[in-house]
Hints:
The protein has 488 residues and is an all-alpha fold. 74% of the residues lie in helices and 2% in strands. It has helices spanning 16-48, 52-79, 89-106, 115-147, 151-175, 177-180, 209-230, 245-257, 260-275, 280-290, 297-322, 324-342, 351-390, 395-423, 438-463, 469-487; strands at 3-4, 181-183, 202-204, 235-236. Helix 4 (115-147) runs antiparallel to helix 14 (395-423) and helix 13 (351-390) packs parallel to helix 15. The chain is globular.
Amino acid sequence: MSKQNLSANGLRPFGWMDKLGYAMGDMGCGFSFQLVSTFMQLFYLQYIGLSAGDYAVIILISKAFDAINDIVIGNLVDTKRIGKKSKYMPWILLGGVTLVIFNVMIFAPVQSFPYWGKYAWCLVSYCLWSIAYTMVNVPYGSLHSVITDDPQQRVSLSTFRSIGAALPAVVIMIVLPGIVYKDKLDAAGQPVIDPSTGKPFQDLIGSSLLPVALVLSVVAFVTLWGTTKLVTERVSRDTSENAAGFKAMMSSVRSFFTNRAMIGATVATVASVALFNSTMSLNNMVFQYFFKDAGKVGVAMIGSYAPMIVFMAFIGKLTKKFGKKNVIVTTMLIGAISGIVSLFAPITPDGTGMIVYIVCLMGLNLGNTVFQISVWAIVADCIEVSYRKTGKSEEGSLYALYSFFRKLAQGIGQAVVSWGLVAIGFVEGDGAIQAADFGDKVKSLYFIVLAVGSLIAFLAMKFIYNIGKKEEMAFQAEAQALEGFEEA
């Protein structure tokens, strides 16, 4: 059984420092992840010159590589201490340093390379970035289970993690478009005007992404360092039942796939990440090719994050009253219905249409937002269930397996986007001109992908995930009883 020792070890009680520090960790991860997931595809298709089909293959290969990468690193985090005081913090710092290097490598200006060189550079740099990101994200995610074992405190950590993730998203989706896009110019240096809107066509400034990547990578490392200074590990687990080496990996795999709650949460996560978080490039293209104003993509972000801002204030009370599962299932169903309705909404390529578009996104993102706020607390509960069932301290390995499926979902999402773009006639290359109806097609593709994601996540949380309000209350009562016993 997990043990939270606050008084005997002289540890500071759970509080604001833990919440702030944990938020900083996802902020650090987010500055790297959001930049790569939002702009890497656009960078290689529109600036470097890879084909959409080849890019999809690169993503799938790199995610297959992650299958080994995540499991190995998760096992190393569980079995190899590289620091004396903490199981997780040294791994976070080591990974943070390598993340700076490979984040910058991805956005190197290799457009003059031969085609095979571009292909190889994209594949190798993304695989190396994946290793570095795993070295940060697995120990960071595992921290959630050992900061506290109180389910409601875990919800507050999950909420603050979502706040930490939101800031990089806002910066990258609202601030960066004004930096990395420019008006398309003709041979005489004059803007090329779209006759349907009277506004200039816009191109990605690929060369601007290298300095942007360098600055954001340094910021990411500083925030990760802040996590190691502010967060306290309180929950100790008996590791005597843990295996080692290959046996440990297989033990963790068995624990993962025999945990019904973990399977349900993972299926819902795959749907959420693949068909929501990994498809932001489609949103960029809607503004670039439908509204003909890429600089205003941040307006859609306001709509996307409005539900998160509202629910952050009430998520603790709602989940306490109804349970995390019931709140997520209800909002995901609303999102799926909104997605279907959005396909038939009267969206026009003007200011009025943009407002309708934002309203549609608010409905679609409602369920996904609530899930993203709560998911880290859900995963911590799933790990708690596994420990109670097996007696094995496998936080790092279990989180690594979960993280692998998250990253596999990123690859699936980018592949779906790439193949979807091929299907609707996207033309690759720097300065390429798209067909007149491409904007309408990419808007419809985006809504379809989001609606399918909501439906799959709803089904997984409704019929597979099995930690309901009753189980959450039992966890909380036991944690409170143990805390009261120790303080006495």
